[in-house]
Amino acid sequence: MFQKILVANRGEIAIRVMRACRELDIKSGAIYSEADNKALFAMYADEASPVGPAPAGQSYLNAEKIIQIAKQTGCDAIHPGYGFLSENAKFAKRCEEEGIVFIGPSSKVIEKLGSKIESRKIAKKAGIPTVPGTEDAVTDVKEAIAIAKEIGYPVLIKASAGGGGIGMRVVNNEGEFKDALETTMKLAGSAFGDSAVFIEKYILNPRHIEIQILADKYGHIVYLGDRECSIQRRHQKLIEEAPSPIMTPELRKRMGEAAVAAAKAAGYENAGTVEFIYSNGNFYFLEVNTRLQVEHGITELVTGIDLVKQQILIAQGKPLDFKQEDVQIRGHAIECRLNAEDPLNDFAPSPGKIRRYRSSGGPGIRVDSGVHVGYTISPYYDSMISKLCAYGQTREEAIARMKRALYEYVVTGVTTNIPFHKAVMENPEFVKGNLSTKFIDNNNIVEA
Ligand SMILES: Nc1ncc2cc(-c3cccc4ccccc34)c(N3CC[C@@H](N)C3)nc2n1
Ligand SMILES: [Ca+2]
């Protein structure tokens, strides 16, 4: 049993992990930067240690300082949350070297799955549908053009070490290729320290559907249903739901088993998400996210399984205490990410001090918030205020509850995207479940 876990993150996810620790009777340690010294998560933990100045590079990304704090405060394990160092193989390896349990997959698996080229090979070998494209990195434009001719334009050039849509470039014809290939390789080199790129057929207007998996240390791997994450802006997810409006028991079984096969082939342990794109009845493997995701709460709502507690139990060497057939998807859950951003200023973060704050409640509502009255949203980090989740027996009930909860939510002092979320909940295409990754582009969402 762990006595104490260091939560190497901030805001709502830090509180989320600390809540799981408290329920498991495990002490929690926080790290906080100078910008977060009055933050809720730092007060919530059993112990809080300053980790450095506000810039993430000097605080939440300072691997050696975090490991030093873990050792000095007697932590057995570190939970990285999402973002920051959560998918950083070097950090996971340093934890392993220092005898501190990294709550997640092994550093080797994080490294392997951090390469999209490697991940595609694993998926293909496991018989999982992948997007038509190249097996390996391409460097030679002639070779790339030959492949593109074979699979047909438009194609995507993707950075193997990329994430969240960074280092992705659409190529519509042969003439564009040379420049697109060179710029994408250069960008990948400078952004990720790895200029390897590969080619995929560009699937137009797909849905973005992902499968949650849990794997213990004894080879038991289960999938915990699906999440639709198509409503995003510049690869920032805004609204997610579980299950996907187009999901059927057969499709869920096919995608779930594909996700488990990929995890098995990769030697996966702990919580992970296998990302797919879906179009015209076909789904294609994209990548594996080797961390707990922001939107994990909607899966917890429809399965009743606490993913963070499962992560901690798995990291302690406990076998899963349930099987695939025990997993039931019941009802429908929607998550709206409430951000301090100004839709009239191109959704730029709108940092500032929260003057009045009252979050929603009542039947079927879950709020994961990291803020409070008087809290200043920092310009140094993401502009998230909270995640508002609404659960219902049906999608219609979940939407009705989300509309009510958005009506109840009061935040003044900063501009928020609550009006955007209200407008989506009223949007006929959304209500019909007609989603795609082009939803925001295709529907001019008039702020309510
Ligand atoms: N071959 C092929 N075709 C269409 C794709 C569509 C996406 C995609 C996924 C989710 C949202 C998007 C928004 C704008 C553009 C693309 C997307 C995509 N992503 C986005 C980030 C990363 N998760 C992979 N890969 C794609 N790959
Ligand atoms: Ca990813």
The total count of helices amounts to 15
What's the shape?
Answer: globular
Average pLDDT figure: 96
Distance between the termini: 50 Å
Radius of gyration, in angstroms, nearest whole number: 21 Å
Number of strands: 22
Strand content: 25-35%
- Helical fraction equals 25-40%
Task: Give the bound compounds.
Answer: ligand MV4, calcium ion
Order of strands, main sheet, comes to: 13-12-9-10-11-14-21-19
Sheet of most strands:
8 strands, antiparallel
Multimerization status: single chain
Estimated structural class? alpha+beta
Low-confidence stretches: none
What key attributes describe this structure?
448 residues; alpha+beta; 8-stranded antiparallel beta sheet; binds calcium ion; 27% strand; 15 helices; globular; 5-stranded parallel beta sheet; binds the ligand Nc1ncc2cc(-c3cccc4ccccc34)c(N3CC[C@@H](N)C3)nc2n1; 34% helix
Describe what you observe in this structure:
By secondary structure, this protein is an alpha+beta fold. The protein has helices at residues 11-23, 40-44, 63-72, 89-97, 107-113, 116-125, 141-151, 174-192, 249-266, 296-303, 307-315, 395-408, 418-426, 428-432, 439-442, and strands spanning 4-7, 27-33, 47-52, 77-79, 101-102, 155-159, 168-171, 197-201, 207-215, 221-233, 236-242, 270-279, 282-289, 332-339, 341-342, 348-349, 352-353, 356-358, 365-369, 376-377, 384-392, 410-412. The protein has 15 helices and 22 strands. An eight-stranded antiparallel sheet has the order 13-12-9-10-11-14-21-19. A five-stranded parallel sheet has the order 3-2-1-4-5. Strand 15 (341-342) and strand 16 (348-349) form a beta hairpin. 50% of the residues are buried. The structure holds the ligand Nc1ncc2cc(-c3cccc4ccccc34)c(N3CC[C@@H](N)C3)nc2n1 and calcium ion (CA).
